[in-house]
Amino acid sequence: LHLDEVMKREGRHRWMDEEMAVLTTPGTYQNPLEDAWQRIKIRSDRPKVLAVLREVAAWRESEAQRRDIPRNRVVRDETLAEIALNGPETVEELGHVRGIGPDMARGKVGTALLAAVKKGLSLPKDECPKGEKRVHFPPELTPVLEMLKMLLKIQCAEAGVAARLVASADELELLAMNDNADIPALKGWRLEIFGRAALALKNGRVALTLKDRRISKIET
Questions:
Q1: 171-210 in b/e burial notation, b at 16+ Cβ within 10 A?
Q2: 50 Cβ partners below 8 Å, 6+ apart?
Q3: Which pLDDT band, with edges at 50, 70 and 90, does 211 fall under?
Q4: For residues 58, 61, 67 and 68, what is the CA-based torsion angle, rounded to 10 degrees?
Q5: What angle do the packed helices 142-159 and 169-177 form, to 10 degrees?
Q6: What's the pLDDT band for 30 if we cut at 50, 70, 90?
Q7: Tell me: the pLDDT tens digits for 71-121?
Q8: Taking the CB of residue 60, how many other CB atoms lie within 10 A of it?
């Protein structure tokens, strides 16, 4: 009741409607097995490595759904990444993977993982997934990124919203590089809190200044 009163007073019910629309959309909870690998960070874009990662991640996704438990309770992300990088083909090799161990390698989990590895390694190159080339952040834009981080803190403090709910570090990098970045911070209520001010800062319409030992923004 108190929260509802605050939202009415601040005119933020629309913010809640936007978030609830995402939470009540069935697609939000659909996790296709073949796409599960894309959530796992890995230091390689080699087709065979990604093929193995796709297969072991698909198995884990299926197993997590079947048992109704978090993915990392089945096998952790970093363990799947190591399996993909090393491509173990025997129980002994799998048992040396950090996070697996000899006992698990000899059990049902080990059998399933080795089958997934074998399937990934056997795929022709043209059927292997292709990783997206990550755009490296230009060092010369570091000052822009730091100013955006500071502005995010200022805007979120004024709005009484946690900064992590508005924009992540990766999203700020994309925004520093592109005014039209496809990120949540440039949509909906996040655009109102931070996005418009961020674009204004990038385009010289807003400046950051130090006054009374506090950083604040001013219109230019």
A1: bbbbbbeeeeeebbbbebbbbebbbebbbbbbeeebeeee
A2: 37, 42, 44, 84, 128, 129, 130, 131
A3: confident
A4: -160
A5: 120
A6: low
A7: 999 999 999 999 999 999 999 999 999 999 999 999 999 999 999 999 999
A8: 27
